[in-house]
Amino acid sequence: MLGYTLKRLLGAIPTLLILLTLAFFMMRLAPGGPFDTEKSLPPEIQANLDRKYHLDEPLLQQYGRYLWDLLHGDFGPSFQYKDYSVNELIATGFPVSMRLGVAAILIALVIGVTLGTLAALRQNRATDYTVMTLAMTGISIPNFVLAPILILVFAVHLGWLPAGGWNDGQWRNLLLPIVGLALPQIAYIARLMRGSMIEVLHSNAIRTARAKGLPERVVILRHALKPALLPVISFLGPATAAVITGSVVIEQIFGIPGLGRYFVQGALNRDYTLVMGVVVFYGTLIILFNFIVDLLYAALDPRVRYR
Amino acid sequence: MALLEVRNLKVRFRTGDGDVYAVNDLSLTLEQGKTLGIVGESGSGKSQLVLAIMNLLAANGSLEGSIRFREQELVGLPSAAMNRIRGSRIAMIFQDPMTCLNSYLTIERQMTEVLQHHRGMDRGGARREAIRMLEAVHIPDAARRIERYPHEFSGGMRQRVMIAMALLCRPDLLIADEPTTALDVTVQAQIVRLLNELQQEFGMSILMITHDLGVIAGISDQVMVLYGGRICELAPVDTLFHRPRHPYTRGLLNSVPRLDRDSSERLQAIPGNPPNLLQLPPGCAFADRCSERLEQCATDQPGLVEAEPGHRVACHLEPGP
Lengths: 307, 321
What we know:
The complex is a heterodimer of chains A (307) and B (321).
Chain A: H1 2-29, H2 43-52, H3 59-71, H4 86-121, H5 126-140, H6 143-157, H7 171-201, H8 204-211, H9 216-254, H10 259-268, H11 272-300, H12 302-305
Helix pairs in contact in A: 1-11, 4-5, 4-7, 4-9, 4-10, 4-11, 5-7, 6-7, 6-9, 7-9, 8-9, 9-10, 9-11, 10-11
Chain B: E1 4-15, E2 18-30, E3 35-39, H1 46-53, E4 61-69, E5 72-73, H2 79-85, E6 90-93, H3 97-100, H4 107-119, H5 123-136, H6 142-145, H7 155-167, E7 173-177, H8 185-202, E8 205-210, H9 213-219, E9 222-227, E10 230-236, H10 237-242, H11 247-254, E11 305-308, E12 311-313
Parallel strand pairs in B: 3-8, 3-9, 6-7, 7-8
Antiparallel strand pairs in B: 1-2, 1-4, 4-5, 9-10, 10-12, 11-12
Helix pairs in contact in B: 4-5, 5-7, 7-8
C-alpha cells in the first residue's frame, strides 16, 4: 500500500513538469507583459522593473529560475498584487474555492446518485423520462449561461438571495454559486448512475439476491448500490477538477474572492507568476483527487484491493 | 399431496419481433423428497419454466396457468408473500457460480442476510449456522473462509457456497438450473454427489435442470424431456434411459459418447436446429428434424399419452390410449 502510494506520487512528477513547462512558455508567447498600461512607461523604469523581476534574462534562464524556486516551495511574487507573494494569494483564495467546490460536489453526489437510481428503478416510465430530460438540459447549458439566469430569477426578480459578493462566506451568498456549480454535475452523475444501475440490476448477482427472497430495499441498497457506484466514483476525480476549474467562471460572475478569480485576473493582466502558481496548484489538486478516487475504488471493490 | 403442482403453465415474452412462447401448456407434479430432472437443449424453455416458478421472469415476461406449492397458489401472489417463500421454502442455485454471487460482499454477509431475513436470527447466530452449512458442503476451514470474498474461491467451491446458501433455511424444494454446466467434469461429479448426499440429509425435493444426460442419470427419480417449451417425454429415470419412446429422446441418447460401443461408430447428431419460439409450427415442434415423421405431425399437436404406467410420451407414433 505504501509502495503503491509512493509510486503514484513519483509518477505525478513528470505530469506536473510537462504541465508547468507548457504553461510557462504559453504564457510568455501571449502578447503584452505584466507592466503594460495605457500610458507606456519610461524605458528606464521599464528596465528597472524588468531587472527586479528578472524579466531581462533569457527565457530559458527564467524558466530554470522558476523551477528552482518552485522546488523550494516558492511560487514567487505576484506582479499585479504588488505586496503579496503568490503563495499568500493561493492561501487566501483556495479555502474559499475549496468551500464552494466541496459543497457543490457533495450535493451533486447525493442528488445525482438518488435521481439516477430512481430513474433506473422506473426505467422507461415517467420518472425516468423526467429525470433524463432534466439531466440532458443540465448538461447542455454552460455555467456562464446558467449563473446569470440564477441571478435573474432568485436575486433580481424574487429578491430572495444576494446577486453576488462573499460577505464572509454567509450561506445566503454561497447558495447560488454552489447551485451553479453543482447543477451540471448532478446531471452527469444522474445519467451515469442510471446507466450503471440498470446494468447491475440485470446482473446474475442481483437475480441471486432476489431468489433469496430479500426485500427490494435490501436488494438495491446492499447488493446493487456498491457496484453501481463504481463508475460514479471514477467520474468524481475529473468532476472535482471540473468544479474547481468551473469555479473560475462562477467566482468571476458572483464576485467571489476565490482562487478562480485570481486566475482570471492574473491571465488578463499577464501576471506570469500568479497564473503559473494557480496552474501548478490546480494540476497538483487534480492529480491528488484522481489518486483519492483510486483509493476509494479499492475500498469499494474487493477484487481491486487484493491485487 | 404433491409438494409442487404446475398446471397448464404458459410463459410468454413480448419482444420487438413479436411474442416468444417459451413454455407452452406445461404441467408437472413433484412429490416431497423426490428429484425431477428436466432435460432439453438451449431454448427448450427449461430455464424459463423454473424462473416462472420463482417469479423471477424478466420484465417483458408474463405467465398463465397455475403453480401450487404446498397447496398455495404462487401465480399472482403479492411480492412480499413471494419473498417469504423464495430463499426460505424454495431455494435456487444457478448455472454460473462465477457471476451469481455478489463480488462486493463477503460470503458471510451473503449467507447471514438470508437467516436474518427469513429466520430473524441475530448476526452471531446466523454466522454460526452459516459456518455449519459451509461445513456440510465440505468447504475446508469454513470458519476462516467465510470472511472471504467470492473471487477468492474456485468455481467448484463457489458452487458449493451457492448450495450452502440455498440450503440455509432448509427449503422444501431446491431448484438447480444447470448447476454443473460451468464446472469441469471432475468437479461436476463432486457437485452431483454432494447434492445427492444433502438430499438424503435434509429430505428436500430437487428440480434439476440440465442438458447433461449423465448428470440427470446420477440424481433424478423422474426425467422430463422438454422440446419447444412442451413436454415430449416423462418417465422414471431407468425407463427413460432403457426404453426411450420419443424420437427426440432417442436422438439425445444416441448423441452421447459411450465407452461400451465400438469407437469406429460415429456419434449421431440430431439434424437441423431447435425450433424458432417466435413461430412454433401448428403440429409437433420436432417434426422438421424427426426421421420417423408421419403426415399428421406437421399439422396436429400430439397429446401427452401414457405409453406404460408412469411413462408419458407426446408423439403420434404412440398407439394412443
